[in-house]
Specification:
The chain has two domains: 26-103 and 214-249, Periplasmic binding protein-like II (D-Maltodextrin-Binding Protein, domain 2, 3-Layer(aba) Sandwich), CATH 3.40.190.10; 105-206, D-Maltodextrin-Binding Protein, domain 2 (3-Layer(aba) Sandwich), CATH 3.40.190.10. 35% of the residues lie in helices and 22% in strands. The protein has helices at 36-50, 62-70, 84-91, 118-121, 143-154, 158-161, 171-179, 190-193, 196-199, 228-239, 241-249; strands at 26-32, 54-60, 77-80, 99-111, 134-137, 165-168, 185-189, 202-206, 214-221. The chain starts with 25 loop residues before the first strand and ends in a 6-residue tail after the last helix.
């Protein structure tokens, strides 16, 4: 399976990391791409509450971010879309504790005009010959890619759909393919599929609980963190009442 060429002209808000601002202490965050819509709101709320600090995030697939951490990237916090990658960070001595901050949900996204009748037939519709391409994140590095494969397997259509699968380097790139109409459907986290940029171009379809796995979302404060106390304060904010309310608005369930 080979990914289609990225559409250079498409600049989804999901795809790029924000630039850092110089004033005040900075909490450098490595975050799964699926978290971007929620994390941007969480960061703004924390900055407003705390005053004088900045939360600056780098986004990508969880496995890619772990590799960057191992290579010495100067992050203070790691936010992952599963428990496996942060546990590896702990085992390698980069962090001491894994905190599950939310539970994510996998959904199907159907671009406007697509022949994929998922609303009526569920994931079985993806086996229809009229459906030519289905985007998922790369399961080798993205937990939601693994969840997508598991959902297709549970629906009994993985082998029929496998030749149609287009892999994104992360959920952000899988969402790009759907946003551009380059695929007939995409399996994405609810937090990404319901973001305004994407929601305006298609329909989000929930998956049955027996088909879609719950995806625990975990974070670690890194032992090499600059401004470690501030990093811990941001994590405490996210797991507190206000942070969980923000996460709920972005399609996350409490842990």
């Amino acid at each position: 399976m080979k990914p289609v060429q990225a559409i250079a002209s498409l600049a989804l808000a999901l795809a790029a990391a924000p630039a850092a601002r110089a004033e005040g202490p900075v909490v450098a965050v490595a975050a799964a791409a699926s978290l971007r819509p929620a994390l941007e709101e969480l960061a703004r709320a924390f900055e407003a509450e705390r005053g004088g600090c900045r939360v600056v995030a780098t986004y990508g697939a969880s496995g890619t971010l772990l590799a960057q951490l191992r290579a010495g990237a100067p992050f203070a916090l790691g936010w992952y879309a599963d428990r496996q990658y942060p546990r590896k960070a702990v085992e390698a001595g980069h962090a001491r504790e894994v905190v599950v901050y939310a539970v994510g949900r996998l959904v199907a996204f159907v671009p406007r005009g697509s022949p994929a009748a998922i609303e009526a037939r569920g994931l079985a519709a993806l086996a229809d010959p009229a459906v030519r391409r289905v985007a998922i994140a790369n399961p080798a590095v993205a937990p939601y890619g693994r969840a997508a494969e598991a959902a297709l397997r549970a629906a009994g259509v993985l082998e029929a759909v496998r030749p149609k699968i287009v892999l994104g380097e992360s959920v952000a790139q899988a969402a790009q393919f759907a946003h551009a109409g380059a695929v007939d459907a995409a399996l994405l986290p609810a937090s990404v599929a319901t973001a305004p940029e994407l929601a305006a171009t298609g329909v989000t379809v929930p998956l049955a609980p027996g088909i879609a796995q719950r995806v625990p979302q975990s974070a670690v404060v890194l032992t090499s963190a600059r401004h470690a106390e501030l990093a811990r304060a941001f994590l405490a904010f996210v797991t507190g009442a206000r942070g969980r309310a923000i996460l709920a608005r972005h399609g996350y369930d409490p842990p």
